[in-house]
Amino acid sequence: MPAMDIRPVLEEHAAALWHQVDEATRGPDVPADPVSELLPRLDDRPEGGERSELWLGVVDGTAVAIGDIRLPLHDNTISAEIDVRVRPDHRRRGRGREMVDHLLRRVTAEGRSRVFGEIDEPLVDAPGDPEHPGRGFARSLGARPVLFEIRRSLDLTMLDSSKVAALRAEAAGRAAGYSLVQWVDRAPVDVRDDLAALMARMSTDVPLDDMEWEPEVWDAARVLAKEDGAIARGRTRIVSAARHDDTGRLVGYTDIGVNAQRPGIAYQWDTIVASEHRGHRLGMLMKAANLEQLQQRVPGVRLVHTWNAEVNRHMIAVNEALGFRAVERWREWQLDLGT
Length: 339
Ligand SMILES: CC(C)(COP(=O)(O)OP(=O)(O)OC[C@H]1O[C@@H](n2cnc3c(N)ncnc32)[C@H](O)[C@@H]1OP(=O)(O)O)[C@@H](O)C(=O)NCCC(=O)NCCS
Fold this sequence. Notes:
It is built from eight helices and twelve strands. It is of the alpha+beta class. It folds into two domains: 5-112, Aminopeptidase (3-Layer(aba) Sandwich), CATH 3.40.630.30; 153-330, 3-Layer(aba) Sandwich (Aminopeptidase), CATH 3.40.630. Strands 1-2-3-4-5-12-6-11-10-9-8-7 form a twelve-stranded mixed β-sheet, with helices on both faces. Helix 4 packs antiparallel against helix 7, helix 5 (192-205) crosses helix 6 and helix 7 crosses helix 8.
């Protein structure tokens, strides 16, 4: 069998080939990001607090495998996130293994000893189904599943707007003393510090099960860098946040990202309410208001996807009330190197 040549992706032609493999390995509902999203990643500049590397595996002139590495820079500096994908018509020939071995050598050279990867699976395994490729692959590496998540989706074409409006109104009635603040892309300058504190809490307050992810370190500069990164990739960020009237502080936010080149599919990113402000329906208020803002600001969105840990009861209850339905299981896998 011919050897696979593994090359770094540093220019647009290689990025286009990388993107073709990415597209060939994904379904229609969670497709590959548009190729333009790769371009800001080619110049080796850190983006939103992490550095990344893209690798392409070529056999006889055909791109068959891809690798993606993300290296956090401000926290979790012993960890790396990786992703490996092999074109369906080139699987079970050891290409995935060759690529992952390469990525593990690279992250080790960067001083990282803990590796994470996310793999999607069907919601339920039917009896007699063959082993799921991603799960078989992760197990063969000695990785262990550490976090169980469910992807839920909301079909906006079927959305009952009056129901969302009623949920918003009901939540607003229970949220006296708080005001809604909304923006698109860039946060107002006066909320950046509060937003940084909330983003740090996103890494400590969400259920992590057995995932050994350290608390993230955020400041206003990193918030700005994250916004820069999203804008450079062509992603529109729709945000609804809650301000505590007495103190003027921002105490919660939720954001949805959508690429302007492919507005049909939007992604729920973060949702958090600071612990001392929970129990006032701010989660529902912000999420219902943000769905309305999304529809006003980005016409053409058909689906919104959200990922929640299976144990995240409160967030799931809000999502289900808004009409999100479970479609897929996702697991985070952890591999500790050299143990
Ligand atoms: C997972 C994936 C990368 C594997 O690529 P691949 O080139 O077929 O993998 P390899 O041939 O190198 O397989 C290495 C080992 O993984 C395990 N494995 C791979 N596919 C498997 C499957 N369908 N069922 C059971 N085990 C499997 C086996 O132990 C295999 O060794 P073996 O063939 O000697 O038994 C590929 O199926 C893929 O792109 N899936 C979609 C994306 C994904 O889930 N990526 C993982 C994210 S890190």
